[in-house]
Write a structure and sequence with these properties.
It comes from Chitinophaga dinghuensis. It is built from 19 helices and no strands. With 433 residues, it is an all-alpha fold. Helix 8 runs parallel beside helix 16 and helix 10 packs antiparallel against helix 12. The two termini are 41 Å apart.
């Protein structure tokens, strides 16, 4: 019954946003209240669930999204984005620019949290799209698929790292197996699948459409790459130092994503602003425009967090996972399927993975399954079918300015390919190890 209620609430949400043309943030709040009442959460507890869901979701993303938008705006307006695009195109050529961005997304996706990687890569994707008039979804989706795969498969990302601990797996082996599984899944979900999306309509957020800048006014090549990639470099360096030198208060502070983004904004204000002859008044105007452009994206993500929390507080994810314990399915497949179903209902890959792990752990021991592959199996399932209750779905939709239908046909199908290809790769590995 609970599963039917969840399915009904998701259907209401889809109808409100598509047929009713309602603002997505308002629709999320209304459906969250409806779900809470229908699933038996006491009426006086529902507002707390809404507030907690919004706070937990936005608390970790607000400063990253806003500061990332500011950096992206300055990179675009200064001409640095054009300089980067020109350099990449000269190096790889128009024919291979998609692969260049994909490899970049995979490399930086290993140490970076998904939200940070998304915000960092979107300006570069859009600068290439606008500069060379290439299809936005065709160019951008493989890069974002790379970020998604590293987020779900590879430690030290939060969910895979937690799963390694829960299943008693080996971090190094899990990372090695994860890369072996991730590469073919990425190729299928990225370059291969995106070939069918060349003509998919998309009008990317104009935030990153830079004004016409004469070639003589472009920032230097080193300045452009260094400033745009500074967050990536700092986060990689601090992550490596934290692993090599052990936990250190100052290293943890310096490696915190919002702190890194704040430092990078200060640097960019000088390197791409003041040193290029811009006034602080002009730079501040860019930052204000960036905040205005992404405000609705933040609200929509907040709304999805409210719905996620209501469904989590109702206990529906635990009910679904418990019911599946009685199915006669190989444990690697069962772990994947459990995470996939919870992901479809809840929206959060992290919650789906951790909830599935708590239910599958005892079964894994009984079946003598490989714990490293178990981590990957649950991780692959947690990426399955991202749709309207997932913040990543709305980030892709709003940044690329797409319809719900086309977002489902592109983003959701891509995530499903990642999940299915990941499971097949895991089962193939299991046959040889």
């Amino acid at each position: 019954m609970s599963f039917l209620i969840v399915a009904g609430c998701l259907l209401v949400l889809i109808l409100l946003v598509t047929w009713g043309k309602m603002n997505a943030f308002i629709a999320f709040l209304l459906v969250s209240i409806l779900a809470g009442i229908s699933l038996g959460i006491p009426a006086d507890k529902i507002p707390g669930s809404l507030q907690k869901g919004i706070g937990d979701t936005i608390g970790g993303l607000l400063s990253i999204i806003m500061l990332g938008a500011m950096l992206g705006k300055l990179v675009a307006e200064s001409g640095a984005a054009r300089q980067i695009a020109n350099s990449l195109m000269k190096l790889f050529g128009t024919r291979y620019i998609q692969w260049a961005l994909l490899v970049a997304g995979f490399i930086i996706g290993i140490p970076l949290y998904y939200g940070v990687g998304f915000v960092l890569m979107v300006p570069l994707i859009f600068s290439v799209v606008y500069q060379y008039k290439l299809p936005a979804v065709y160019i951008g989706l493989p890069t974002l698929a790379a970020l998604s795969i590293t987020h779900g498969f590879l430690p030290p990302h939060p969910s895979p790292a937690a799963l390694v601990n829960q299943f008693g797996a080996d971090m190094g082996l899990t990372l090695l197996y994860g890369i072996l599984v991730a590469i073919p899944a990425l190729i299928l979900a990225g370059p291969v699948f995106s070939r069918f999306l060349r003509k998919m309509p998309s009008a990317p957020n104009a935030l990153y459409q830079q004004e016409e800048v004469r070639e003589t006014r472009l920032p230097g090549r080193f300045n452009s790459f260094f400033t745009a990639l500074l967050p990536v470099l700092l986060l990689i360096v601090t992550t490596l130092l934290n692993h090599l030198a052990g936990k250190n208060a100052w290293l943890s502070f310096a490696g915190d994503a919002p702190i890194v983004m704040l430092f990078c904004i200060v640097v960019a204000t000088y390197t791409l602003g003041i040193s290029q002859g811009r006034t602080m008044k002009e730079i501040t105007r860019f930052y204000s425009e960036a905040v205005n452009d992404v405000a609705m994206i933040v609200l929509i993500i907040a709304g999805s967090g409210a719905l996620k929390q209501v469904l989590s507080d109702s206990g529906v994810s635990g009910q679904i996972a418990a019911a599946m314990q009685h199915w006669h399915i190989p444990v690697l497949v069962l772990g994947w399927l459990t995470a996939a179903i919870i992901r479809a209902c809840i929206g959060s890959a992290t919650i789906a993975g951790l909830t599935a792990a708590s239910m599958i752990g005892p079964l894994m021991v009984q079946a003598h399954a490989n714990p490293n592959l178990m981590v990957l199996s649950v991780g692959a399932g947690s990426l399955m079918f991202s749709h309207v209750n997932d913040a990543g779905f709305w980030m892709f939709k709003e940044y690329f300015n797409m319809s719900i239908k086309n977002t489902l046909l592109s983003w959701s199908v891509m995530e499903t390919i990642v999940g299915v290809a990941g499971l097949l790769g895991i089962l193939l590995l299991n046959a040889f190890i």
